[in-house]
């Protein structure tokens, strides 16, 4: 694991922590290698190349990268240059058009990615995509569909609660079941307040340099 566990890397560290726990519970051996965030003065291309070389010393079956995309691009470049073949999984903080812009096609295709597909990749969002294009004259991105669903669920909860009071609306939100949204069918776990099914997929980069659901 190559992990941004700096003070600004709470998200990337948290994701890596959970994966490490799951892998070790399944009997896998995990090596954790800390990396600097890309804004650190010491985070040069050679620095990342050295961290990648360290990760490859043990001939791993899989290299997992939990960083934000500026660091991920340097790691992808170093992996591609290494000439080695272990599988590579980039965490979802690397699913960004900036990652694609800063890498060659071969570098971008060296790994697969865990992430949320763009609205155009989700069959459940086809109507939303058409309406978005008609309204704004451009293709819908990733997070707009989640904002759209969140707003509609909130408005529906307000209608059911017949109130704007926080407690009443929260109770109605937690009771959401089977809502058919652009991001799929949504049910909220009343205990946690989180949706029970999050549409995270394994993505790859296609020949047109787009993130698509892996076939």
SSE blueprint:
Blueprint: E1 2-4, H1 10-25, E2 33-35, H2 45-56, E3 62-66, H3 69-82, E4 87-90, H4 97-101, H5 105-108, E5 112-115, H6 126-136, H7 143-161, H8 166-174, E6 179-181, E7 184-186, E8 201-205, E9 211-213
Overall helicity: 40-55%
CATH class of the largest domain: Alpha Beta
Order of SSEs, N→C? EHEHEHEHHEHHHEEEE
Task: Supply the number of structural domains.
Answer: 2
- The amount of beta strand, in percent, is 15-25%
What name is given to the CATH topology of the largest domain?
Rossmann fold
Helix vs. strand class = alpha/beta
CATH homologous group name of the largest domain:
Response regulator
How many strands appear in the DSSP assignment?
A: 9
Major β-sheet strand ordering: 2-1-3-4-5-8-9
Overall shape: globular
The Cα radius of gyration reads: 20 Å
Spatial gap, N to C terminus: 25 Å
Biggest sheet: strands, sense, closure? 7 strands, mixed
Outline the low-pLDDT stretches.
none
| Total DSSP helices | 8
């Amino acid at each position: 694991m190559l992990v941004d566990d700096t003070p600004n890397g709470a998200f990337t560290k948290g994701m890596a922590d959970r994966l490490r726990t799951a892998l070790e519970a399944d009997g896998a051996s995990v090596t954790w290698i800390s990396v600097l965030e890309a804004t650190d003065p010491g985070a040069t291309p050679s620095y990342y190349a050295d961290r990648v070389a360290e990760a490859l010393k043990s001939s791993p079956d899989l290299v997992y990268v939990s960083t934000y995309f500026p660091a991920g691009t340097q790691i992808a470049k170093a992996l591609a240059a290494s000439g080695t073949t272990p599988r590579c999984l980039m965490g979802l903080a690397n699913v960004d058009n900036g990652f694609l812009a800063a890498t060659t096609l071969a570098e971008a295709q060296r790994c697969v990615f865990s992430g949320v597909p763009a609205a155009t990749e989700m069959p459940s969002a086809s109507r939303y995509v058409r309406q978005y294009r008609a309204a704004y004259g451009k293709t819908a991105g990733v997070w707009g569909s989640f904002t759209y669903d969140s707003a509609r669920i909130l408005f529906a909860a307000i209608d059911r609660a017949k109130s704007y009071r926080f407690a009443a609306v929260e109770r109605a939100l937690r009771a959401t079941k089977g809502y058919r949204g652009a991001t799929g069918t949504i049910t909220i776990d009343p205990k946690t307040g989180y949706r029970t099914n999050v549409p995270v997929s394994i993505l790859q980069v296609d020949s047109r340099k787009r993130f698509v659901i892996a076939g």
